């Protein structure tokens, strides 16, 4: 593949969400190799994406309108269509917040168990 981009992309590892079909469909992705003008998205599986869609970059709380430029295996290249500063992501839904709380509670429980095991092992030594 020839190098067509004009800006150097920085390596990134940010959680993203592709939104399309008027917000009725979304797919999780990882935002990789991002620049001011575009990025490479890593997808967990190959699927059909529309020519344009919204990309929410969760770690940066940004939603950008993007255009699909290329596809190769489990990656796609995109160009940012919005030249202005990225708009903040819309607030999460109640269901999304409840799911995140459950995930955090599970992580908290696991960490408490691991700490307890570590303290027990340390006390026995």
Describe the structure.
The chain is built from one helix and seven strands; from the N terminus they run βββββββα. By secondary structure, the chain is of the alpha+beta class. It folds into two domains: 1-89, predicted glycosyltransferase like domains (Thrombin, subunit H, Beta Barrel), CATH 2.40.10; 91-125. The protein has a six-stranded antiparallel beta barrel with strand order 1-2-3-6-5-4. Strand 5 and strand 6 (75-80) form a beta hairpin. The longest helix has 31 residues, at 94-124. It is elongated and about 60 Å long. The mean pLDDT is 85. Residues 10-85 form the PilZ domain. Residues 94-121 form a coiled coil. GO terms for molecular function: cyclic-di-GMP binding. It comes from Methylobacterium oryzihabitans.
| Domain unit count | 2
Helix content: 10-25%
Supply the CATH architecture of the largest domain: Beta Barrel
Low-confidence stretches: none
According to CATH, the fold-level topology of the largest domain is: Thrombin, subunit H
Tell me the span between the first and last alpha carbons. 58 Å
**CATH homologous superfamily identity of the largest domain:** predicted glycosyltransferase like domains
Helix/sheet category: alpha+beta
SSE pattern, N- to C-terminal: EEEEEEEH
Number of strands: 7
Estimate the mean pLDDT confidence. Answer: 85
Helix count, DSSP H or I runs of 4 or more residues: 1
CATH class category label of the largest domain: Mainly Beta
Taking the sheet with the most strands, its summary is: 6 strands, antiparallel, barrel
Specify the overall morphology.
Answer: elongated
Cα radius of gyration in angstroms? 19 Å
Within the largest sheet, what's the order of strands? 1-2-3-6-5-4
Share of residues in strands:
35-45%
């Amino acid at each position: 593949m020839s190098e067509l981009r004009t800006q150097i992309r920085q390596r990134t590892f940010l959680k993203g969400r592709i939104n399309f079909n008027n917000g009725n469909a979304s797919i999780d992705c990882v935002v990789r190799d991002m620049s001011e003008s575009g990025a490479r998205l890593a997808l967990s599986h190959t699927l059909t994406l529309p020519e344009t869609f919204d990309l929410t970059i969760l770690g940066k709380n940004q939603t950008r309108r993007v255009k699909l430029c290329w596809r190769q295996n489990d990656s796609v290249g995109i160009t940012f269509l919005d030249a202005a500063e990225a708009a903040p992501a819309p607030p999460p839904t109640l269901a999304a917040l409840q799911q995140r709380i459950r995930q955090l509670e599970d992580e908290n429980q696991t960490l408490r168990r691991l700490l307890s095991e570590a303290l027990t092992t340390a006390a026995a030594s």
